[in-house]
Description:
heterodimer; A: mainly alpha; 78% helix; B: alpha/beta; Rossmann fold; Alpha-Beta Plaits; 6-stranded mixed sheet; 4-stranded antiparallel sheet; 29% strand
Amino acid sequence: MSEAARWxxxxxxxxxxxxxxxxxxxxxxxxxxxxSVVTTTLYFVIxxxxxxxxxxxxxxxxxxxxxxxxxxxxxxITNAYSNVxxxxxxxxxxxxxxxxxxxxxPHWIILAGYVAGGVARGLVVGMAVMAVALFFTDMQVxxxxxxxxxxxxxxxxFSLGGFINAIYANSFDDISIVPTFVLTPLTYLxxxxxxxxxxxxxxxGLSMANPVLYMVNAFRYGLLGVSDIxxxxxxxxxxxxxxxxxxxxxxxxxxxxxxKS
Amino acid sequence: MLALDVQQLTKxxxxxxxxxxxxxxxxxxxxxxxxxxxxxxGKSTFIGIISSLVNKSGGGVRVFGxxxxxxxxxxxxxxGLVPQEFNFNLFLPVIxxxxxxxxxxxxxxxxxxxxxxxxxxxxxxWDRRHTEMRRxxxxxxxxxxxxxxxxxxxxxxxxxxxxxGVDIEIRRSMWGFLRELNAEGTTIIxxxxxxxxxxxxxxxxxIINHGEIVERSSxxxxxxxxxxxxxxxxxxxxxxxxxxxxxxxxxxxxDCTLEVEMNRDHTINGLFEALSRNGIEVxxxxxxxxxxxxxxxxxxxxxxxxxxxxx
Lengths: 261, 311
């Protein structure tokens, strides 16, 4: 087989997995897309309108404007993660992952396909939350490039996280433990609702170990032009995490952990 | 050319269980090959390794010249697998399952639709193409597993107990389909618990037990190893006393039924002549036990005694 034919085949395999994943979450949009939209709408109403007006400005912006980037990113993070972890674990549980394992699809294509599915859902939810935000605030975009790039990288990183979780999961309980006990605390403590400048030096230092902080701040910079973290550091950290998790995911697939005997 | 060439294949699972202990096995291109063995013998592990679902511990696998270690994509492209257990996304319609599988093999969607239609029509599933998997009966799911495995036109089709749990009518129609497929050039490796199935379909056979091949030969050569054969005869009248027939061992099951054990030096004609001379008329006869079944039991119940069976 020529190199060109091989790459064409890879392209078809990748698009097959991606289309399958997009159709999967689209068919059940009431379970996959709608909940995040409803939840963030409630956040906008309660924290933005009712409580936010009493809080006053933060980093020079209305509180509602300040929390929009974090809420959008929260939707992206949870949905990118959930999509891959639930889809890949279901394919393991019902054994139809074997359809892919017996095929000549290389491991990196399988990983890329699932991650792309997670990114797609993350972006769809992110866009939906942004659309909801338009009802509550006049959204501005300070840097479209930073905004889109950080959306994409965040969705990619948490899709990889979901993939690793699914590989190790042995039951449906295992796929809900990480989102509940790791992802949600990291997101809530990642500066979605506050600036870390409000924290004492100790808690500020501790917050720097939270990767979500870098993403929220870089994304906030993209929309509002303000950030607690230097932009280069945010992109560097997210890029590094993606490389590490991506390499680890490939290693797991290559060795067959969780999917082969 | 060899469709499958396995050398010194070993598999030791975590915990130390040795599922395969240095298996050597080759299957010629175009063959219809049966791999038999009792539960836990290592059949599914063997098939799992060839189809990349199980990691091997040692040894080598080549499929149509492609080495599993150096060229796994080449190996996988040649193989279609029908696994023992259902492995579908139950919420997808039939056609999507097959089209997706084609896509995983790099067949573009438009072409995949054509391939999927061909396979679904061949297995009488085209009318069900929009039915969700979970709504199919067990027999239809079995047929769909074959359609899915064939969508990329594999050169080697591996079937792990494809007719388990399906009724006789569907089983027979699947046999006919597999015979046609083999006649068109597809090499087929079959594991089955129905020894009648192996005897009816396969030309060559291997019996695996405790992770080792205990017998490997053509079906004809294997059946030739049977020293004696036992028939059950239904008689027209009652027999009060068993006659002495030289070379035949008779046993009365009831007044109208005889069991006759005869060795390979004697013929059925000779048996009938001897019975006629003693005034015994036969209405019908049947094998007491499937011939392959008897050999199989001899081989797996007394491992290492294949030569005794032959003697």
